[in-house]
Amino acid sequence: MKILNDKVIIITGAASGFGKAGAIRFAEEGAKVVITDINEQAGEQTVEEIHTLGGEAAFVKADVSKARDCEEMVAFAVRTFGRLDMIWNNAGIQGETAYDIAHCEDDMIDRYMDIDVKGVWYGCRFAAPELVKNKGIILNTASIVASLGTLGCSTYGASKGAVRNLTYVLANELGVYGVRCNCISPYCVATPGTIKQGGDLLRMQENGTALGRLPTVDEVVNVALWLFSPEASGVTGLDFRVDMGAGVRTMPMLVDEFKNNNRYE
Predict the structure, then answer these.
(1) Is residue 156 flagged as an active site residue?
(2) Are strands 180-186 and 239-242 parallel, antiparallel or unpaired?
């Protein structure tokens, strides 16, 4: 039997990246996937790819920073497939240019909080009643930055730290109903874009890991799949760092790089 046979899952931010890769992989494992994203064309394309592979999927456009969109996203899943078993709150803003805190603007912190924090919170809020019915599963995408004092990441780090703590709270709050809740914290993921950029930045990122390389999209999805599987039935309230050991690696070269680009003088 397939690992996720007949399970209904919502994946936000599933039109690209490991959200898309996860949607395809989970469908191959028997899940009925509700793909949500602000990019309607790319989201529908992901649905078509899943259908071509013989899987079941449907798309609903949603801006996760808006409560109404997230409420409709959950209602759509129940209308379309009759139930909701799982949600992967994956949509978010990637870490952008590093700024020291004195040079961050209000709109930067607002944007991170609206999408990275409220987007995850809304997803959990509206999915929770359905997940309680089915002893479901929540997975939230955080970041290795949530565990480290990464230079220049006061906005991104604050948002992902909030996601991690929300995960802990909900594991406790919803655990009494049999709902599991974990988060996954990737490092910089190896994509065609990151590999193509090459140069000093890529080398610095690779050298920042104990294994000397970036995690792949598939490696992130593999961990997510396991967390949604019956094999992880006793796992809740944890942060899984898919970081190639970046969390145990020190990068003193980053200090000089940061000082050169961010000055208080």
Answers:
(1) yes
(2) parallel
